[in-house]
Design brief:
Elements: H1 9-20, E1 23-24, H2 25-32, H3 38-50, E2 54-59, E3 65-70, H4 72-78, H5 96-123, E4 132-134, E5 138-141, E6 144-146, E7 150-155, E8 165-173, H6 179-183, H7 185-194, E9 225-230, H8 235-249, H9 255-260, E10 263-267, H10 268-274, E11 282-283
Parallel strand pairs: 8-9, 9-10
Antiparallel strand pairs: 1-3, 2-3, 4-7, 5-6, 7-8, 10-11
Helix pairs in contact: 2-3
Length: 295
């Protein structure tokens, strides 16, 4: 790799693309350099492409929209950096055809990230580009796993203050799956909440032995709240999906999980219009009420 601005804009641009998987030119500009002219971002992306670190596709039906993604070489380089070390290498697209097949959902996830990033900037709170981590693998036993669309870290209060750290699993739904399938994700998160791993070659603790804790406690002091962000449908479709989540929440096996963990749903359009800190979120147990996600 040659002529990379280490520790500055080039490095951040590559790290963001590796972590986010895909973004348009405009989204990249809003993430990494909103305070400068967009031409600087376009030149930066063109340079990284010349280096073989990223590539792009053009969507002809969207005003020839350019969508950027990291190459395998770019992933290899960035995953050696401290800010990305220890994270599972992302499942990157391997060619333009593969990129086109994933572009709709991935760009919506990136846009959801921007809702929170730009809101934090506006309020002087702390949510930096790499605080949005897509597809974090959480095992739940039997070879199965919960892989949220993103894990987000967001610190409330003015930057530099000791405000509370909020963590959230974010599920972005574009109405491409049925409401019942969306609602089934509640069961998966409840399984993750109670999952206790059994060490290889050992039985579960007997009476008098120290119990093994739930797997998530090795990562988080509190189980992250679960946020469903709904897009790709009108108000009636959003209501249908929230009602499906509400129906699933009546399952008695979810009672302990829902008592312990806030699970909220909101339309992406409302997050854009009002901001994610406003009371636009519907608790799945009480969908007629709206609350702030950080309450």
């Amino acid at each position: 790799m040659t002529d990379v601005d280490v520790g500055s804009g080039d490095r951040l641009a590559l790290a963001v693309l590796v972590q986010y998987r895909m973004a348009t030119t405009e989204q990249m500009h809003r993430v990494i350099a909103p305070g400068v002219r967009s031409e600087q971002t376009r030149r930066r992306l063109a340079k990284l492409r010349e280096e073989g670190l990223i590539d792009r596709i053009t969507l002809p039906r969207s005003g020839r929209l350019r969508v950027w993604f990291p190459t395998s070489y770019g992933v290899q380089v960035a995953c050696e950096w401290p800010e990305l070390r220890g994270r599972r290498p992302p499942k990157t697209v391997s060619d333009p055809t593969a990129a086109r097949l994933r572009v709709g959902h991935t760009l919506t996830v990136t846009e959801t990230a921007l809702v929170f990033l730009e809101h934090a900037r506006h309020r002087g709170e702390l949510c930096r580009p790499l605080d949005w981590i897509p597809e974090v693998y959480h095992p739940i036993g039997g070879g199965e796993a919960v892989i949220p669309d993103a894990l987000m870290y967001y610190r409330r209060g003015r930057e530099g203050s000791a405000g509370p750290m909020l963590r959230a699993f974010v599920e972005v739904d574009r109405a491409t799956m049925g409401p019942e399938r969306l609602a089934s994700k509640l069961t998966s998160y409840a399984r993750l909440h109670r999952y206790v791993p059994t060490p290889a070659g050992q039985r579960r603790p007997s009476i008098g032995q120290m119990p093994i804790q739930e797997e998530w406690r090795q990562r988080y002091p509190l189980f992250p709240r679960v946020l469903f962000v709904l897009d790709g449908t009108g108000p009636a479709g959003v209501t249908t999906r929230i009602n499906a989540l509400h129906a699933a929440a009546k399952d008695p096996t979810l009672t302990l999980f829902l008592h312990s963990v806030p699970v909220l749903a909101a339309a992406l359009a409302d997050l854009h219009t009002y901001g994610p800190s406003e009371p636009v979120w519907h608790p799945v147990q009480d969908p007629d009420r709206t609350v702030a996600w950080s309450s």
